[in-house]
Amino acid sequence: MARPVFGQRQSMAGVSLAPARSMAARPQRAARRAVTTQAKLNKSKINKVVLAYSGGLDTSVILQWLKETYDCEVVTFTADLGQGEELEPARQKAEAAGVKEIFIDDLREEFVRDYVFPMFRANALYEGTYLLGTSIARPLIAKRQIEIARAVGADAVSHGATGKGNDQVRFELGYLGLQPDINVIAPWREWDLNSRSKLIEYAESRGIAVPQGKRNEPPFSMDANLLHISYEGNALEDPWQEPSESMFTRSVSPEQAPNTPTYVEIDFEKGDPVAIDGVRLSPATLLARLNQLGGDNGIGRVDIVESRFVGMKSRGVYETPGGTVLLTARRALESLCLDRGEAHLKDELMPKYAELVYNGFWFSPERAALQALVDETQKHATGTVRVKLYKGNVVVVGRKSPFSLFDQRVASFEDDEGAYDQRDAAGFIALQALRLRTLASQRGSPL
């Protein structure tokens, strides 16, 4: 069947989604209520739950478990973030399970425009390598769940993240940051279905279909959206083990990439990409095109061991072809348009920004404050960058901007006709050396 169009909202009960009420309009007493923890959750007070639902085995089991455990109505919400999967089966499975209100939203444009691009303006990399593909998707899912919960009168939201991972934190910080009095149900922290065999046994006893592939231990777990795809677990739990080439889905290996380079020109306006090779594209369409170009040239694979917010180390393999191209091109443009002070301050603050996104603090005041500073630096980040894509590499081969701070007369090794007086450097160096000379005189040479 056809994919849902942008902005589509499906509800089996025909619920109209009016704009969500602002938090300011809600009674102030709601903000003063103590946050309901899972340990204190009064099950008798849960009437309706909005579940982040994929239609896979885990969330299908969660759907049934919520009904049985809380004796409540379950509303399902499935987000299309460009994961590349047909979402119609999720609607069909929810309907077969007796769900009356089913929401399937195409959030691709909002995801890239309002989450990915703002993050990329900060050039955010977690621990110097991770482009935060999973992290940046969670606040949008949380936001949409809260909007739906308000629209349908739900008193709880639920997710399928485990108690070992980062996603439980990201989802719940999003929920509670947007609606402090919402009840949160995290089944993996509550039930006793702590193994795949128990999960399958539960599913079969309730008539939930179990795909044949789920009966065997999968080689790894995956999470995908328009920015990236991640692979974790099982076969990858040994950091010494090289990933299998058959695992990758968004890129060819650099060895198998074309022997002829691909040249691409990316136009930027105020820090955001707006066109490829002169053709203006919407945010989601542009990122999808960069994914194709990067993946075809073996770009965007990374194998890292990262520090999870919950305290453990985990090994993950990621494919982020379009994001890798975009980051390289953006930095090239900034090198031309940003003042040294702006650029260096951004680089100093970037690890903090990336950590906030990774840890789930997208809706925090400190992330908003950093975003305002980052966006201020992007007012003149407009221009074009030309890159060469070749066998896993992104090589910048040209950049231009109407706001360029590069002065060829001053930088030239040829006669600058008086634009720069080289004799001025003597006084500059003397002043910079003053404290070093004083230290050496008082304390002796460090040699």
TrEMBL record:
Pathway: Amino-acid biosynthesis; L-arginine biosynthesis; L-arginine from L-ornithine and carbamoyl phosphate: step 2/3. Residues 220-437 form the Arginosuccinate synthase C-terminal domain. Its EC number is 6.3.4.5. Keywords: Amino-acid biosynthesis, Arginine biosynthesis, ATP-binding, Ligase, Nucleotide-binding. GO terms for biological process: argininosuccinate metabolic process; L-arginine biosynthetic process; urea cycle. Pfam families: Arginosuc_syn_C, Arginosuc_synth. Residues 48-208 form the Arginosuccinate synthase-like N-terminal domain. One of its GO terms (molecular function) is ATP binding. Homotetramer. This is argininosuccinate synthase.
